[in-house]
Amino acid sequence: MNWASRQVRDGILPTAVLGIATSKGISDVAAYGSSGSRVATVDDAYPLFSITKPLVGLTALRAVEHGLLALDAPLVGAIPEFPTPAVTLTHLLSHTSGVSEPRLDVSTGYRRALVEGDQDFTPGTMTRYSSIAFAGVAALVETATGDSLESSLGSLATDAGMPGLTFDRDCDPHPVYGAAEQDLDYETFAPLHHPGAGLFATATDLLNLGSALLRNDGAVVQPGTRTAMLRPLTAGLPKLAPYLVERGQDWGLGWNLRHSAPGLLERGVFGHGGWAGTEFWVYPELDLCFVLLTNIASPGRLGLNADPLFNAVASGR
C-alpha cells in the first residue's frame, strides 16, 4: 500500500484506492487522498475507462459458452450496414479489426461511428488498440442474447459479486481531473455509455471479479474459456502505436497479456488499465490480483509508472 500512498503524497495522483485479493477473497484494500473536499474511501465508485473492455468482452465469451455466439461471428450479422464483412468478434476483442478510431466523446453515436468509419487495414493482419471495436462487441452480444448490454453486464455482475458495476453516473463516482487538457469532453462522454470505456465500479467489485477468475470455478466463465481468453492472438503481427512491440505484450480475447513487459519481474499476468490511471490485473500462478482506482487523465504525463506497483504486488511487498 506504500506505493499508492506515496503517489498521493507526491501529488501525482489526487486519490488512490488500492486493493489485493486471492482466490479466497479480498486480502486488503485502502484509500488515500481526496477529490477536493471529498475524502476517498474504499467504497467509492470510479470511472473505469478501458477496464470496461474486458468486462464487455466477458459478456461476449459467456454468450459463446452458451452457444449463442461464435468467435468467428461477423459484425455484419449484428450491424448489416457495416461495410467490412470480414470483421469478426475475435478481431474486435483482440484489437485486430482495423476499424478507424473516432473520438471517445463522439456525439453522433458509436454504432454510426462504426459504420461510417474507415477501414485502416485488413482485419487480422495488424494490431492497433481500439475502443470503438467494443461497440461492435456490444452489438454482437445484444443480437445473440436478445438482451441489452446492460442486462448481460448485470448477469456478470451478479455472478462475480460486483453490485456496483454500472454505466449510470448516479453512482456518484469521483471526478476525472485533467480530462479537458487531454482533449476529452468528459461531460459529453460520461452519459454515452461507451461499451469500451464507460463503466463505473468500486474496488470491491473488481477485486471480487479477480478472485472469481482466480478460483476458475465456472462462476464467471468456464475453465476452458479462461484458457482460451488468455491465448495470445497478436503474436507476430505488426503492432501499431500506442502498443508497440517494445511494450512486450499481446492481446487475448479482451485481455492485455504482459508476457514480455521489460519492466516486470513477474510476467504471468493478465488484465487491463484505464485512461484515468485505473489498473486491474490478475496473476493466476501467484493466486493474486490487484486493483488501483484513481482519477487523473493520462497520469503517465505526470511521471506515473505503474510497473513498480506490479513488482511490489507480485513480490508481496
List the helices and strands and how they pair.
Layout: H1 2-9, E1 15-22, E2 25-35, E3 38-39, E4 45-47, H2 52-65, H3 89-93, H4 110-116, H5 133-145, H6 149-160, H7 186-189, E5 200-202, H8 203-215, H9 223-229, E6 250-251, E7 256-257, E8 270-273, E9 279-283, E10 288-293, H10 307-314
Antiparallel strand pairs: 1-2, 1-10, 2-3, 4-5, 6-7, 7-8, 8-9, 9-10
Helix pairs in contact: 2-5, 2-6
Strand order of the largest sheet: 3-2-1-10-9-8-7-6
CATH C-level class is Alpha Beta
Q: Give the overall pLDDT as a whole number.
A: 96
Radius of gyration: 18 Å
Assembly type of the chains comes to single chain
Portion of residues within helices: 25-40%
CATH superfamily: DD-peptidase/beta-lactamase superfamily
Low-confidence runs of at least 5 consecutive residues: none
> Shape, please?
globular
Query: Could you say how many structural domains there are in total?
Result: 1
Give the topology string: H per helix, E per strand.
HEEEEHHHHHHEHHEEEEEH
Corresponding CATH architecture? 3-Layer(aba) Sandwich
| Secondary structure: number of strands | 10
Largest sheet: 8 strands, antiparallel
Structural class: alpha+beta
By CATH, the topology is Beta-lactamase
End-to-end CA span: 8 Å
